[in-house]
Design goal:
The complex is a heterodimer of chains A (about 325) and B (about 375).
Chain A lengths: L12 H14 L1 H30 L17 H6 L3 H33 L5 H13 L2 H11 L6 H7 L14 H27 L3 H9 L4 H12 L1 H16 L3 H6 L14 H11 L3 H26 L4
Helix pairs in contact in A: 2-14, 4-8, 4-11, 5-8, 8-11, 9-10, 11-14, 13-14
Chain B lengths: L3 E10 L3 E11 L4 E5 L6 H9 L6 E6 L2 E2 L10 E4 L11 H11 L4 H15 L14 H13 L5 E5 L7 H17 L3 E6 L2 H7 L2 E6 L2 E6 L1 H6 L4 H6 L6 E9 L3 E5 L4 E3 L5 H4 L6 E6 L4 E3 L8 E13 L4 E7 L2 E7 L10 E7 L4 E4 L7
Helix pairs in contact in B: 2-3, 2-4, 3-4
Classes of the chains: A mainly alpha (about 325), B alpha+beta (about 375).
Membrane topology (chain B): Peripheral membrane protein
GO cellular component, one term (chain B): ATP-binding cassette (ABC) transporter complex, substrate-binding subunit-containing
Organism (chain B): Siculibacillus lacustris
């Protein structure tokens, strides 16, 4: 009996797909690109493209209502040096962020350390602290607006028991900064209590016991053992808190004169300025330049923070 | 230097579980005492109470002539080596060793001198700039010991310090700890669950079980004269064989095993065991007292025959495992004996070394 040699048959589509899939898995880089491709594409469309478009617009005198939007180069950036409200917003934002970041993180760390000593009740307190985090900014700010009200507000009412005269928390140009910081701290502290709580729980109990036996006081244990070991968590918290506070807008919009007819001081912040220039005056190009400055400023701060918190070799 | 005195110390967790039950222990100055026992026996809790890391529910702990019940750990002048070393991961080896001295405000030159000296003793001078994560298990163990010795404390506490090391390194470090104690004589309390570690290191061994001290004594004393069935079974590897027996007088005091094997009690033990006639007893015999039969039979040595269940050649000896009346039995025979699994093997039981345990009290009589 002789062997019959058949001509090669064209393989079916599923077989070819399976072979292609196997080949792609062998080619690791190709596989990674294909697997991550859709996510990367979405990321580019949603994240990268708007940033790039904002940077492009910042070189144009772009106005929504005009047909002609000429290229002005660094003209928008040059105007930033002359823009008084922008300077005021920049200073306010820096002051607000510094105070809010320091107050939020110190308070969160103190709470997290205290909660560690009441291990069983800690989750309940963490939940209570976390409630403001999940409350949207606008309703929370409306409630705080009532609390800060000079005539009917709960804060002035409470202070009256201590003989403190009525204060215009949202009307006084100095007090409004602290009022806004208080709202920001109230809103964000729960998030960082949880983050610091996780960091503290990750420190082995034995290390603290060893420090006890080594003769370290509670303060020395905190500064020499706990904080250095929490360096990555603290860096994450400082970076996150800085970004959140530099981008502050909703509470300022609701609590200050920017909201409709509210009798309050017009406390300017960078994002508020960007909003006004972009969506009130339609100077999109100039608002874009302000966005770029905000971006560069926050990024520079983050680089400094990363350098300050990096582990010494 | 100072001794440690533990007087009627009790530890109760959350008002319910009693981990340590009114123990008494005197540790002399410069003595090396090992607390040994199975998991959950209260040995680590006892050590942590001496360190001040656990509160004492009742009783007193004295270090030297000072009652330390309410003294903070940092004021007890003790140093502890933890099971997981507890080295500060963000500090170099030097800083780990110097930390305790820095907290006590020693001058910089003195710190440097002490750290270098301790590093020299432990042979870790070359590692002083490294971080703990760049060290092997054995090196970390040395650093942990270095951190303890630089402070020259009154008492050293070791909490299962070798249990994270592999078998070979454990033997090596065991020798080094012993050598260290010989070099720097300091009162030492050492906790382990490994009875070999306890026997090789200790001046005295404290055997603990279920929150109580079963027996305190020198290693050889515990081995040859255990006070209770627990100590007899816990100390020694392989463990002592236990066989239920009836003690009866048939013109001579004899032991009858459950399957009818009769063993005569050696003459030297007759007076001691006589009062226990008719009681349910347990015969305890170490594997080295169950050997192959030699040509010359000595008084008190009796022949037992049983089929071999398992043969374990150890190089320097062979361990044979049997079952007699359903009870496991281990024998130690010379390495040149030729034996096979399943064959009936005649053993010489040296009853001169036997232990007889009263089942009612659990005590060796």
């Amino acid at each position: 009996m002789s062997d019959v040699i058949l001509p090669p048959q064209p393989s079916s589509l599923p077989a070819r797909l399976a072979r292609g899939w196997a080949r792609m898995k062998r080619n690791h880089i190709g596989f990674v690109i294909c697997a991550l491709g859709p996510v990367l594409a979405l990321f580019v469309v949603i994240r990268i493209y708007p940033i790039a478009e904002t940077i492009r617009l910042s070189f144009y005198d772009y106005h929504i209502t005009r047909r002609s939007n000429p290229f002005v180069g660094l003209g928008n950036y040059a105007y930033l040096f002359e823009d008084g409200p922008f300077h005021e917003a920049l200073v306010n934002t820096i002051l607000f962020s510094m105070l809010a970041v320091v107050a939020t993180l110190l308070l969160a760390l103190a709470c997290a350390i205290l909660l560690r000593s009441i291990e069983k009740a800690a989750p309940i307190y963490e939940l209570l602290f976390y409630i403001p985090v999940v409350t949207p900014w606008v309703p929370a700010s409306v409630i705080w607006k009532w609390i800060f009200d000079p005539t009917f507000g709960a804060l002035n009412y409470a202070l009256s028991f201590f003989g403190v005269a009525r204060l215009g928390w949202l009307q006084d140009p100095t007090l409004i900064l602290f009022a806004l910081v208080a709202v920001s701290v109230w809103k964000m502290v729960g998030y960082f209590v949880v983050i610091f709580g996780v960091g503290l729980r990750a420190i082995p109990e034995e290390l603290l016991e060893a420090a006890d036996l080594d003769g370290a006081t509670a303060w020395r244990k905190l500064t020499r053992i706990v904080l250095p070991l929490m360096r990555p968590i603290i860096l994450f918290s400082v970076v996150t808190c800085t970004i959140i506070n530099f981008n502050v807008f909703a509470p300022v919009y609701v609590l200050t004169a920017s909201s409709q007819g509210a009798p309050a001081y017009d406390f300017k912040v960078l994002v508020g300025e960007i909003y006004s220039n972009g969506f009130v005056y339609y100077h999109m190009g100039y608002a874009g330049a302000q966005c770029v400055v905000l971006l560069l400023f926050v990024m520079s701060l983050l680089i400094v923070q990363f350098l300050a918190f990096r582990e010494k070799k | 230097m100072a001794g440690v005195s533990i007087r009627k110390v009790v530890k109760v967790y959350e008002g319910k579980f009693q981990a340590v039950k009114a123990i008494d222990l005197e540790v002399a100055e410069d003595e090396f005492v090992v607390l040994v026992g199975p998991s959950g026996c209260g040995k680590s809790t006892t050590l942590r109470m001496v360190a001040g890391l656990e509160e004492i529910s009742a009783g007193e702990i004295w270090i030297g002539d000072k009652l330390v019940n309410d003294v903070l750990p940092r004021e007890r002048d003790i140093a502890m080596v933890f099971q997981n070393y507890a080295l500060y991961p963000h500090m170099s080896v030097y800083d780990n060793m110097a930390f305790g001295l820095q907290q006590r405000k020693y001058p910089r030159e003195e710190i440097q001198k002490r750290v270098q000296h301790a590093a020299g003793i432990l042979d870790i001078t070359a590692l002083l700039d490294r971080k703990p994560k760049a060290l092997s298990g054995g090196q970390r163990q040395r650093v942990a010991m270095g951190r303890a010795i630089v402070r020259n404390p009154k008492v050293f506490l070791f909490d299962e310090p070798l249990s994270n090391l592999d078998a070979k390194l454990r033997v090596q470090m065991r020798t080094e700890i012993k050598k260290l104690h010989q070099t720097i004589a300091t009162t030492t309390l050492y906790v382990t669950h490994d009875q070999v570690e306890a026997m090789t290191l200790a001046d005295r061994v404290v055997v603990m079980n279920a929150g109580r001290i079963e027996q305190v004594g020198a290693p050889q004393e515990l081995y040859h004269h255990p006070a209770t069935r627990f100590v007899a079974g816990f100390i020694g590897s392989p463990a002592m064989n236990f066989l239920p027996v009836d003690l009866y007088d048939d013109g001579g005091l004899k032991l009858r095993l459950a399957d009818g094997i009769v063993l005569p009690v050696p003459a030297a033990r007759v007076d001691r065991y006589g009062p226990y006639k008719g009681k349910a007893m347990t015969l305890g015999l170490r594997p080295e007292n169950l050997t192959e039969i030699h040509d010359v039979e000595r008084p008190g040595v009796t022949r037992i025959e049983a089929p071999i269940d398992v043969v374990e050649p150890m190089g320097s000896e062979i361990l044979l495992h049997f079952f007699i009346d359903g009870k496991p039995l281990c024998a130690r025979i010379a390495p040149d004996c030729v034996v096979t699994h399943g064959e009936r093997f005649a053993l010489a039981a040296d009853l001169n070394q036997m232990h007889l345990i009263d089942d009612e009290s659990g005590r060796v009589v």
